[in-house]
Specification:
Elements lengths: L7 E4 L11 E6 L3 E6 L6 E4 H29 L1
Antiparallel strand pairs: 1-2, 2-3, 3-4
Length: 77
């Protein structure tokens, strides 16, 4: 693995929602993830740890809902 010493920026392929602008994603030193809409200045930053924690929470919640729906379906049918 290579240590991150300078920002790495990439654009998405498809436009985002009704904005019709692509998202620019940056990995920045200090373990930061930054996102902004193309041709705008407002940047949203979060630590990679916070993003990972949020993704794990969403995954656990989805798994919980799936299991609850399966139990409900067994009770009914």
């Amino acid at each position: 693995m290579t240590e991150l010493s300078r920002p790495v920026r990439r654009r998405t392929r498809a436009p985002f929602a009704h904005y019709r602008k692509r998202i620019v994603v940056s990995f920045e030193p200090g373990d930061l993830l930054a996102m902004r809409l193309e041709r705008t200045r407002t940047t949203f930053r979060a630590t990679l740890a916070a993003v990972y924690r949020q993704l794990a929470t969403w995954h656990a919640d989805a798994e919980h809902r799936r299991k609850r729906a399966a139990r409900a379906a067994r009770r009914v049918g």
